[in-house]
Design goal:
With 141 residues, this protein is α+β, with helices and mostly antiparallel strands. It is 35% helix and 29% strand. Helix 1 packs across helix 2. 15% of the residues are buried.
Length: 141
């Protein structure tokens, strides 16, 4: 045990733990965030952390070899939010073989923002049957 806490945890792990406390509203950081932010702003923070977590889920699923579904971008709208300097957007896509377009709120790389007509890939969301997660344009970064 170190002077200022547990050894062996890196900054990323510590940041993830703090983010989870904030999102859940529990622990010192979560209670402080709820106390100082209004209900509306706290809901935005929770939504942003949810979007961030879905991005992590996609990376984990891609690494595990999950099946991707091609889709065509119909439209894109900026939400005004940034996560790690990348924009959070409302992305309307038409998955291959689906009867209608779907809307996703997701993080996109500011260097590779999809445009209407571009092909992107989706992954089935394991937590919500019938829902999809944005998996990028398939180009290695």
């Amino acid at each position: 045990m170190g002077i200022f806490g547990k050894r062996g945890r890196n900054r990323e792990q510590q940041a993830a733990e703090i983010a989870e406390q904030v999102a859940s509203g529990k622990g010192f950081y979560g209670r402080s965030a709820r106390a100082f932010l209004g209900r509306e702003d706290f809901a935005r923070v929770q939504q942003s952390l949810g979007t961030y977590r879905s991005g992590q889920d996609v990376q984990r699923l891609l690494a595990a070899g999950a099946h991707t579904v091609p889709a065509i971008v119909v439209s894109l709208a900026d939400t005004g939010q940034l996560i790690n300097h990348d924009p959070v957007v409302d992305l309307v896509v038409h998955p291959h073989g689906a009867p209608a377009p779907i809307t996703l709120r997701t993080i996109v790389s500011k260097l590779r923002v999809p445009r209407p007509g571009d092909q992107v890939f989706l992954i089935a969301d394991p937590d919500q049957p019938g829902a999809y997660l944005y998996a990028g344009d398939g180009v290695a970064r």
